[in-house]
Design brief:
With 306 residues, this protein is an alpha/beta fold. It has one domain. 55% of the residues lie in helices and 15% in strands. It contains twelve helices and nine strands. It has a seven-stranded mixed beta sheet with strand order 1-9-8-2-5-3-4, with helices on both faces. Helix 3 packs across helix 4 and helix 10 packs across helix 11. The longest helix has 32 residues. The chain starts with a helix and ends in a 5-residue tail after the last helix.
């Protein structure tokens, strides 16, 4: 009986996965085949009507923005919330619709001397960014400069969608390293003098260390710092910024070099987090407030948010 139920559940799961993939393909076909202006308006409409007005995790977003910026008025918080959803629609448009070569040419670089310093190194670099701006454009930009790039990804539970996104990334020359058992792939990539992307701004859960982030204690993922120390590889924080006027900026911060001393992982992550905090304070609408950034610490302390 259990075997029969298990087979039925497996068939149902596979059917569901295929349906999800079909919807993705239909959406992809629409945004890539229809007129660009029409697609841009449609994406903004979806972001406003489904994201902002219907409220996909809207209470959580408002609660977290209010927590990080207690000085903001209710109107300011709502404005940031609205523009965050619109940032998501612009991300999709920039990734899948517009010409990447033309977009990359329009980018203004800040801190280029830090990138040039990283390019002189011969044993790879660890790239640190967050779910900020259009983080996917960072890879396109570096590939445009003929820099070899790898990125850490979590394998999607839906194999059809996983293959779709992997093929899409491979088409641009971005090497994928899956999160599970990633260390071997990371070491191999560094030996090949690659730059490896880490998106470090999600809740570190039980494995993380507690340190302040945007005014509240958060569990911070320490893997980036530990790999930096273990492999003696510096970290280059970088961010994509889309200004309210529609200009694109990529900012490179100063390289963070590991030191062989006790608790250096904490020093490193405090610096990495500090650079992310700074850009969030400049343009808060560009950060992905939908993630429960303070979840594990709040849960441990009995704090309810959103």
């Amino acid at each position: 009986m259990k075997r029969i139920l298990s087979k039925k559940m497996a068939k149902h799961s596979k059917f569901k996965q295929r349906m999800e993939f079909m919807l993705l393909k239909m959406f992809y076909c629409y945004i890539t085949k229809f007129p660009k202006k029409m697609v841009a308006k449609s994406l903004d409409s979806i972001a406003l009507n489904i994201g902002f007005r219907v409220g996909v995790r809207k209470k959580l977003v408002i609660a977290q923005i209010t927590r990080a910026f207690p000085e903001y008025s209710a109107e300011k918080v709502l404005d940031v919330t609205k523009r965050m959803y619109l940032n998501m629609s612009k991300m999709i448009y920039e990734i899948f619709v517009i010409d990447k070569e033309e977009l990359v040419k329009s980018i203004t670089i800040q801190g280029e001397e830090n990138l040039l310093e990283a390019e002189t190194l011969t044993n790879g670099v660890l790239l640190a960014t967050g779910h900020y701006g259009n983080w996917e454009l960072l890879g396109f930009f570096l590939l445009h400069r003929r820099i070899k790039i790898s990125a850490i990804f979590k394998r999607l539970s839906n194999p059809y969608m996983n293959s779709f996104f992997k093929d899409f990334r491979d088409g641009f020359g971005l090497d994928s390293i899956y999160k599970k058992n990633a260390l071997r792939g990371i070491i191999k990539a560094l030996r090949d003098n690659r730059m490896i992307f880490f998106i470090h701004d999600q809740d570190g859960r039980k494995a993380g260390k507690v340190m302040p982030f945007l005014g509240s204690d958060a569990s911070v993922f320490m893997g980036l710092a530990k790999i930096s120390i273990k492999t003696k590889t510096p970290i280059l924080p970088l961010y994509h910024i889309r200004t309210p006027e529609g200009k694109h900026i990529i900012r490179f911060e100063k390289l963070i070099y590991p030191q062989q001393e006790d608790n250096d992982d904490v020093r490193i992550m405090k610096k990495v987090n500090s650079s992310l905090e700074q850009v969030i304070k400049e343009y808060p609408e560009l950060w992905f407030w939908l993630h429960k950034r303070w979840k594990s610490v709040d849960k441990k302390r009995g704090v309810k948010l959103g």
